[in-house]
Amino acid sequence: xxxxxxxxxxxxxxxxxxxxxxxxxxxxxxxxxxxxxxxxxxxxxxxxxxxxxxxxxxxxxxxxxxxxxxxxxxxxxxxxxxxxxxxxxxxxxxxxxxxxxxxxxxxxxxxxxxxxxxxxxxxxxxxxxxxxxxxxxxxxxxxxxxxxxxxxxxxxxxxxxxxxxxxxxxxxxxxxxxxxxxxxxxxxxxxxxxxxxxxxxxxxxxxxxxxxxxxxxxxxxxxxxxxxxxxxxxxxxxxxxxxxxxxxxxxxxxxxxxxxxxxxxxxxxxxxx
Length: 273
Description:
The chain is α+β, with helices and mostly antiparallel strands. The chain folds into two domains: about 30-150, Immunoglobulin-like (Sandwich); about 160-270, Immunoglobulin-like (Sandwich). The protein is about 15% helix and about 40% strand. The protein is built from three helices and 21 strands. It has helices spanning about 1-25, 105-115, 225-230, and strands at about 30-35, 35-40, 45-50, 55-65, 65-70, 75-85, 90-95, 100-105, 125-135, 140, 145-150, 160-165, 180, 190-200, 205, 225, 235, 240, 250, 255-265, 270. The strands form five sheets. Strands 3, 6, 7, 9, 10 and 11 form a six-stranded mixed β-sheet that branches. A hairpin with a 4-residue loop joins strand 20 (about 255-265) and strand 21.
């Protein structure tokens, strides 16, 4: 009886292997035939991106379908960008779709550019192409490419604070990028530092976010002035004094020029170098 069981188990095993081999052999092969063709945007496209228009369409990318030989299946298209002249050595995937066109918003294009290492607030030459893929086994196909021009806007760090005031380049304004970003020092959790041109004899204030406008929303609870820090026992640089302007802002008394402002919340010091 035991021998019968052993023979039966062996037979089932051989049958299973045979079936799996047949499945592999019968699996449809999908071969690339024609690559997608990028139609738009072309080399004459040039755009300056702004945060104020981030929800608007920056451009609609259009291409002809790719073709594959084999069982009909869904084709995925990925819009890729790269620094011009790099031959897509390090492509950035903007988005993927199954359609043959995609409307990119200003925010989507800007995010791809910034994440791809393109220079903010400067015109960049950007190569753009389409990558098509089918399933997991078929070879990817790539379209032709065009070189467009794009100027991305600055995307502030979520952890940054902000400097606003007549002592700073943007003055008392939140319009556009007038405010000065005051970021955390890389690798630190409580030290803020920025190189900024400070104007002698003028005042400024530190804000915790930049969602204000020139017309209001200043929110004392969302900002720090001179007395906030002096009241906590901070050692404050001698070139910074209480402006005594009704809001107890910082007043910069040093010479006008490029300075490094540092607020170290661990050491409880504020320095101007």
